[in-house]
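Worked example 3. Consider a protein that binds coenzyme A.
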Amino acid sequence: MSYQNLLVEIKDKIAVVKINRPDKLNALNAQTMIELKNVFTELGKNESVYVIILTGSGEKAFVAGADISELNKLNTISAKEFSEKGQEVFYMIENSAKPVIAAVNGFALGGGCEIALACHIRLASENAKFGQPEVNLGIIPGYGGTQRLTRLINSGRATEYILTGDMIDASEAYRIGLVNHVYKQNELVDKAFEMAQKIISKGQNAVRSAIKAINIVGEVSGKEGQNYEAALFALCCGTEDFKEGTSAFLEKRKPKFTNS
Ligand code: COA
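Given these inputs, the predicted complex is written out as structure tokens:
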């Protein structure tokens, strides 16, 4: 599939999806949202892809938000559809069976912060800046930001960022747990690759089950979450990878997972 606003490269079981509108700081317009939906659908089906890295083109921005020239035309009716459609795309990313690592290489504002929040793991470059500046435009986050930011960092801080629109620099983002690691800009994607390779070396049934179990947090009660964990744990114990992983440990050798 070809894309106007995305660059997609697949190498060694890792897909790198780069949002590519550098002249607009990779702002998410309607076309880009359609392409994101398509690419995540395609990569979900592609058996040769185990991990997805999401990043932005250029050295200035990951994604500077939803495209404000399109936002400007919304009314109450079209805005609801706009928000729901965007939420659907980000929900799809969050529920991707394959881990999605955001390599945040610059501004991650509004929808840019929200798409990073929908990824499973966030890494940032030193120049990254996060924020939900929608209040400056007279709106609130509409792609899940009020929910995911509040779940990820503490609710007092999330409320402050959403109400003030203040930007969060990379070191602060690290301090508050918004990103897992901060790297030099020129090392960021390599570091994301290193993390992806580490994940790829594990049994993928286990990796994908872990994502499912983690994603249910907050969606159901704690007890239901544990029931779901037990069911997924049991399914993992029925796999060849489980036999291989435990046998390899006992035989003091490295496991050779076949993802079966
Ligand atoms: N939507 C549409 N276009 C955007 C955009 C967005 N969210 N963010 C940046 N751009 C465009 C600018 O309009 C400009 O285009 P132009 O050259 O055709 O005028 C280009 O990207 C470069 O941005 P510019 O503002 O000149 O860069 P800067 O370095 O001065 O400022 C930002 C960078 C990120 C601080 C600033 O662009 C900004 O505040 N962007 C909007 C962020 C936002 O509110 N996002 C949430 C939207 S809900």
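Take a moment to read the result before moving on. The chain has two domains: 6-200, 204-250. The first strand starts at residue 6 and ends at 11.
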